[in-house]
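quick one before i forget lol
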Amino acid sequence: MDERKRQEMILELERQIADLPIGYISKKTINGKVQYYHQWTENGKKRSQYLRNGEMEPLREQIEQRKILQAQLKELRSGMPKVRQPNLNFETNVIVGTGLEAMSQGVKNWGLRDCFDQMEGYLYGKEYDRVCLVFGLRRTGKTTMIRQAIGRMTKENLSRAAYIKARKGDNMAMMNRDLKKLFDAGFRYVFIDEVTLMEDFIDSAALFSDVFATMGMKIVLSGTDSLGFWLAMDQELYDRAKPIHTTFIPYREYSRLLGINSIDEYIRYGGTLRAGELAFDDQDVNAQDASFRDDESTRRYIDTAICRNIQHSLACYEAGGHFRHLHSLYEAGELTSAINRIIEDMNHRFLISVLTDDFRSHDLRLTAANLRKERNPEKRTDVLDHIDTQAVTQRLMELLDIRNKEEQSIGITSSHITEIKQYLSALELIVDCPIETAEPGTKPLEHILFTQPGMRYCQAQALVHALLKDPQFSALSEYEKTQVTDRILEEVRGRMMEDIVLLETMKAADKNHRVFKLQFEAGEFDMVIYDQKENCCEIFEIKHSSEQVPLQYRHLIDEDKCRRTERRFGPIQRRYVLYRGEDIQLENGVQYRNVEAFLKGLR
């Protein structure tokens, strides 16, 4: 029997044994009656469970089956070549044996990413001609997943596993020699972290799949420059890699991993797993340790995790021959700042749309009414009845437009913008979710969603606070300025919550369902879920509020809007308002659902 076939049989036996009960069956005579118990040892402690009538025989058969399989496993392992702890001169940073066990200690009690099963599916599956790529932006759990996979290995598999931390000075020739040494020593699981640091990785990545994977090695590659993986999959690793994406961290997963159950907390810090890693219950520590706690930390993250990611990957790919229109910016040392400005520009446009669509609408009047009748006298105010809303809003928009024009005057062309957006999309930082319009045949409108909400909110927050320095705006009283800026930020959170729900619902939808925003001449449905198979739909309003107000669902019961919607997308089955309060159904058929519960229910 060849080694690969033997290894496949070992993996299959290990899976079967893991599904069978451990321990043994004992019997006791109590008051003349024989009773049976299942007994086993768990974490050093003896456990016992009483067996009811009919449970003893099936359990006995399973325990006997486990013993038979364990004997077969022992025989198979005896025929495997002994793994020698190599006393070899590795050229790269190779860790084996006790070093691997030490690596996994710190993450044993951490939660697993939703995509973690994909990694173990690759490691213990029967496919041997592909490598596994774990890629995503910084602080999204790539190295942690590798450490967790190592920590969950059986003793046998751990003895045949190696971890390599690539360094900038390493190259593929060095990696090739070390992998040969590991293979000859009997190692079959290799985790290579930060592999994109090697300048010749992208152009030589096929070495891992075409040589070592086909020889029987399971190779997991991870790296900070996730664009490099994207480029490699288009060339060297085309159809020979199993990709695992980590950048997108939905609310349900963020909540589960960090123990945070607030949509506002997700809006402020969501996008990375940095917040909460060290102190799950300490909000102050979380805020200080978050990737997006302030404008400076956000800009630093964009520089290191996104701009350098793109720049390094393009420089390494085809010896820098893939910069296309970005070459002039790269040669002038301005590519990083250009990427930053385009990301900021998308946020400026987002903020302008918030001011245009929301701040000057009925919602401001609604807020004025709510503040006027606020039960708490300290919060009750009529300030929004007296400010010149149109003048203030116009001034804010002018400031944003002026800033945009200044940024566009430095020579960033439409070709630059298009290519940078392509790379931001490849990094999974942005997703285009076009807005449908009510009239059939009209072209959908571009609608860009950010997959890292903390980045968007922090930049918008910094921009709003910068407006306080405007002389005309600063002429307002401190109380008026606070009311207006708080209102703007509330609108930003509301619009971001809409985007989060739309993005996560769209990603969770199957092939039979389309998810989109539907816009009319006046007003819109924040989200429509269209069942293409059944030709019916559900319509949603999304409100960053914990109160129930009839104005919130006025579009959902608008006869003209509903009739036009049903003409295109079939009968409306349900009408929802997603908000931050409790679930309730109104007499008119509109259902209020808690937004956090809705997001957690998506799969």
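fyi DSSP finds 25 helices and 18 strands in the chain.
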